[in-house]
Amino acid sequence: MRFARHLSHTFADLLKEEAGASLMEYALVGSLILVVCMLLLLAWHKQN
Known about the structure:
Elements: H1 2-16, H2 18-47
């Protein structure tokens, strides 16, 4: 349980820092790119 508490504090500190905000932005952009690529693959698969 101590590990989970430490992890949540570390995550909260990361969100407060400027580097944490840019890391979250990169994660969001990366996930959006992944979703678009998956949708393109799905559309291409249905077309063939």
